[in-house]
Specification:
Layout: H1 2-15, E1 36-50, H2 55-69, H3 75-96, E2 98-107, E3 112-117, E4 127-133, E5 136-142
Antiparallel strand pairs: 1-2, 1-4, 2-3, 4-5
Length: 143
């Protein structure tokens, strides 16, 4: 029974992060706001890594602790839970990192800016539309 509950907890945590759509994602409080955009040409790009915001480490520690607690009896179970939490936290931190690209863009108005994007196949020479939310980048699209 304990193993079943642990497995159910792990599956619930993993599936709770699944998205249903493939398009851009907007915050619930932000989707109806007016956005501005710039258009320009990518003049340079380089690969970068975005660090985990802490959520991967947190979820990994919880999942590792739950799985670890199913191993052993008494004090052994407590130590296994602690070890599972530590290993899960480290693994979650590594999984939470994301590959991205840092793009240097020459805007059509002559300004130069740098933006970081992940999950996009954008290279030097590509034309891009940069959708801004105030002073933040909401989205970068290849056009």
């Amino acid at each position: 029974m304990k193993l079943f509950l642990s497995t159910a907890t792990v599956l619930a945590l993993l599936l709770s992060g699944c998205a249903t759509g493939s398009g851009p994602e907007y915050d619930a409080n932000d989707y109806n706001q007016i956005k501005r955009y710039d258009i320009g040409t990518v003049i340079a790009e380089r690969d970068v890594i975005i660090k985990d915001d802490g959520s991967g480490k947190f979820l990994g520690a919880i999942i590792g602790g739950v799985i670890g607690s199913t191993v052993g009896h008494g004090d052994g179970s407590v130590l296994a839970a602690l070890g599972g939490g530590l290993i899960g936290g480290y693994a979650g931190n590594e999984v939470g990192k994301a590959n991205a690209k840092e793009l240097t863009v020459e805007l059509d108005n002559g300004d130069h800016i740098v933006v970081v994007v992940k999950g996009k196949d954008i290279q030097a020479g590509d034309r891009v539309q940069i959708i801004k939310d105030g002073n933040k980048v909401a989205q970068v699209n290849k056009i």
